[in-house]
Amino acid sequence: MQDRDEYSELWRETRAFGAATPTDMSDITKRPPSNGFDVQLNEPLNHPVFEGYYSYEGHTFEQLTSLEKRVLEMAVHYPHIQDGIMKAPMNFRRDCLTKPQAAQSNVFSKVFGTTELFEKIVGYIIPRYEDLANLSATCQFVAFKIESLWMHFDASNNNFWGWDKEELAAVRRQEADMEAALAESGKGKGREIIRREFYPYLIISPIRPQDQGPTQDVCRSRTRYPVTPSVKKSPETDFGTSMKAHYSLLHFSFLNSHAIKHLILHAMPWVNVATIERIIPEMHGLESLGIYQCFLMNLGDTGPFLKAINAINQKRLKLGEPHIAVDFSPYYYRGSPYKEDGDGHDGEYGVLPEEKCQLGTTRAVTAQLNGLSVLP
């Protein structure tokens, strides 16, 4: 098994959809601040009241432990952090973990190495992403086993493995015909047709590059809290590509969505409640749906989204189709970085943990759910 430090790191990062290689961060935190930043831009940082994004009970940055510093970096700057281990949900960078895999116990390997048992266990907890992330963090063996279950369509370059253009049933018929032709010709002995991959577990999201970087100087507050990320941001998907990916999603739902049991849509900019109402009824075998950080699905869409799922589930009940379990993480729109008078950080538009002292989070969420007589 991984040691506790690496386990803790992986646990936190898989919960946040991936982040860091389990390495010592002391070299990053000791890096001196750059003097090349614009003075006017940094005036709010030097205001006596400004405490950075998180104050950690008044401690300066140097007083934090290495783990607290890493958690801070992930909380504020994810995914633009050094040594990120994941390119997308359940999609690891190759050679991302610094420690070699340890041999697991015989019972552990047999349980999680048996496909039928493993799929039963994972299928049960998939609707709760935090539980799935916790299971991934137990060891590398399980993490990569979970990764191997999923098809991962890349919305960054509109790569849907061709399943947005071809029907699964037609492809399987062609493969069967090829096998029959080989057998009839007598040339099929010892040869197998390579079947195109298709799994009932599907994640559709942009995928960040395999190689991160380059690193950059970190702008810090007076208390040394990092205000800018330590690596340059990856180029964002352009408008045309993101729109094509959305149409590919619609094409896929028409051709092959009936074969999907578990679906995660992450950071898909054009997905909204109307999209869900269009594609989900086509997925007759769907058992769970996760919507995370999609630009048009904000906190205000919680009510309409759950009402739409309720309506779909009521129809599925009459048809004898599986009930859909849902998991939803809304997108929060960023406000301006600093208040105009320079007396602190403005935060974001939305209900966030760091705003717990300013907003009635419980009441805000309750207000969104008010009027829903039945939850999915």
UniProtKB/TrEMBL annotation:
Top-rank taxon, per record: Eukaryota
Protein name per Swiss-Prot or TrEMBL: Uncharacterized protein
